[in-house]
UniProtKB/TrEMBL annotation:
The lineage of its organism: Archaea, Methanobacteriati, Methanobacteriota, Stenosarchaea group, Halobacteria. This is PRC-barrel domain-containing protein. Residues 1-80 form the PRC-barrel domain. It comes from the Archaea. SUPFAM superfamilies: PRC-barrel domain (SSF50346). InterPro entries: PRC-brl_dom, PRC_barrel-like_sf. Pfam families: PRC. It comes from Natrinema versiforme JCM 10478.
C-alpha cells in the first residue's frame, strides 16, 4: 500500500468488502511504545450485526483492527471479522 497522510483519512466512509456501511472514520489508535497502528475507530452508522464488526467499542464506536484494511481511496475498505 502506498503512503497516505493520516490527516486525509478523517471522515472517510468505512465499508466492508461486501459493501456493508460501517460509518465514518473518527480516528486511528496506535501503540505508544512501538508506534504501530492498532485500530480504526469508526463512528457507527445504522445497524451492523456482531458478525460484520470485528470489534465494538464501549462508547458505541466500532474498533476495526488496521490489519483488516484492504484498500484506501475515496473510502476505506475492510474485511469483516473471521
Amino acid at each position: 500500500m502506498s503512503e497516505i497522510l493520516a490527516r486525509t483519512l478523517g471522515g472517510k466512509p468505512v465499508v466492508g468488502i461486501d459493501g456493508t456501511d460501517f460509518g465514518t472514520l473518527s480516528t486511528v489508535t496506535m501503540d505508544p511504545d512501538s508506534g504501530a497502528l492498532r485500530d480504526l475507530v469508526v463512528d457507527a452508522r445504522g445497524q451492523t450485526s456482531a458478525a460484520d464488526v470485528p470489534r465494538g467499542g464501549d462508547d458505541g464506536r466500532l474498533q476495526i483492527p488496521v490489519s483488516r484494511v484492504e484498500a484506501v481511496n475515496d473510502q476505506i475498505v475492510v474485511q469483516a471479522a473471521e
